[in-house]
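Problem 12. The chain below contains 708 residues. Write out its predicted structure in token notation.
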Amino acid sequence: MKIRLFGIFVLALSLSFSAKGEQLDNQDVDVSSGSTLSNASLVVRQLNGGPFNINNAGTIESTNGSTIRIDVDTAINNSGLIDADLTTGGQAIQFFENSGSNSLDNSGTIRAESIFTFAPAIKVQSSTVTSIVNSGTGTIQSSGATTVSEGIRVDGVGSLVNLINNAGSITATGSGGARGITVLGASNSINQINNSGTITATGGNGVTNGIVFFGGGGTSVINSGTIQAAATSAAANGIRLKIDLTTLTNSGTITGSTHGVSIAGTLTNLVNTGTISGTSGFSISNQGTIVNFTNSQTNLTHTDNIPLNYFILINNTANYGKVTFTDPEGTMNFAIADESTIEGGTYAAVLSGLDAEHLSKTSGVQTVGSVDFGYKLHNSSGSQWDLEIRPLSEDTNCTVNSDGANCDKRNCVASLVEKGLNAVAGGNFAHMNTYDCDTFGSSGRCFSLGGRHTSINDPRSDVTGLVMVYGKKISDHIRWGSFVHSNISYNTPANFLLSNKTPLIGFYAVWNENADQTGLQIKVGNSYQAINATILREQLGFSEAARGETVITAKDLIVELRNNINVSEGFTLTPYGASRFSDKYQSGYTESGAQLPLTFNEVFESSWVAIGGIKFNKESGAGSSVYGTIGIEQDISHNVSTLSPSGVSGITTVDLTKNHNATRAVLALGYDLRVAQNTILRLKFQHQELPYQDMTETNTYVSFNFSF
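Solution.
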């Protein structure tokens, strides 16, 4: 019996000794809970072959060196303890010159305890790792190194960790420096770090960082947990970027005993909805470049290079981003983040420490739900800037229709549309009083060449054009003619620009009762004109300036009956009546140059006008004559579209009949002088009221009539 018990004891002792001195190479490893695999160093080595699996629910430990080395494809799943006690260089887990498919899932503890200079818990050296996942119960820990303790270190040449996902704890503590996660070397990178747990670096007299990219960069760092760094006598930053990073998103806490985030490379997108703080420094120290910065933190501090684009994130009227800048350099565009919840009002002290020279864009528009808002920064005092927000429709409506409530009278879009409709009223002037070549030579032909200058008041505009008229006498009682009027100069208000598209062209035919043109006369004429119009909607308050391009056309048909009565020798009185049918059209357009451009509908106008008055003509014996007209235009019917803009919430329609003038007076005076046997110089002046805005038009027309 004693011999049998002694044999069992020897066997157990032998097995125990074997487990504590065993080294496993190039094989799957499975350590169950309560079991221990131990060696002085390199307890597990995966040097060739593979792929392999390492499953540890117990303990894998080294007493004086690295614990696990991975050179080939290996998946590690640890729910137990992987421990390295180091008196020289080493680490708990090392991926070494391994470009295969590797992964690490940890829900237990991975620990490196050292009295040497460097001691990362996990080291990725010239290797690729698909993912390092540290679950909520997982701990990755490095402590005791005299130079730098590191939780995870990526170095060598060509190292890539696609994902580090930490929901547990990554800690590094050392008497020198400490780093939670480190990337070294220009060719090395971590694509994405997701942290919902805690990353802590606690150093002594060495530079300390929670996460640091020294060499290669990465795509994103997403933090909803805590990243913190502190050192007793050196700089310590929550995150340090010496190289480029695409996105840093923080909804958690990032703190450093110096700076929260320190940037020396280019950070393309920084989104902060959490807290970033630096105890002795600043929330953000930027010696590099921040392209886009979105922030809702109410007490963020920033030093050095200011972001290129800053987006304030507003949660409500009492909770919104505020930044205080110190020693700012550069210029910045200001805008509101799309995710904001806003309402009209003043948001105080959104920016502090900036002068106007630092702000290149201070206003804009923002859509929240179905409501469009306008906003702008206001320098309330010193270097403090407040943000004013109100519905965009309030000021935009005034730029469309300045006759609205609480609007100052101005050249609004509606008035410019009316002005455009006035601008194509030239057919009346042409047919009723001027463009008629009625002196004929032996061949029964007449040609007139002249110039017309038109001035319109309130606002003042001047148009100059060339006119050619051709007339043909068919018989002593019938003649016809045509004309072309092309404008060569437009001097219009700055926000209303005109140019020719199709000149004013027309045709007319005249029947006279008598060969000497006395008695009854019937005239029928038509005309067509098209002009290009540029309507510049001015910036007002929170509204946007914008540019619209449209085309305005006019078609007229006129029938006139007059009775030329020879009152005395050389003096004729002519009562007349006419009817004009007119169609005008402005094409619809969408503005350019605005973040929220307005779209304006087509405008159609049709009218039937009765015209009546009296003309006179007084001839002198010196081959000259004076003549004139007094007349009235009265709309019998008039229809015009409602101006219905869209593109901004709350924008209202405009009734274009509000400024329409249905009864209009016309006064004209002319002088003819025969300067040669077949040449007559004609001077004509006409003043008339226009259909819109109580505007008037004054025309000066000079022509030479040649008969042949």
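Discussion. The two ends are 153 Å apart (CA to CA). Students who got a different answer should revisit the alignment rule from Section 12.3.
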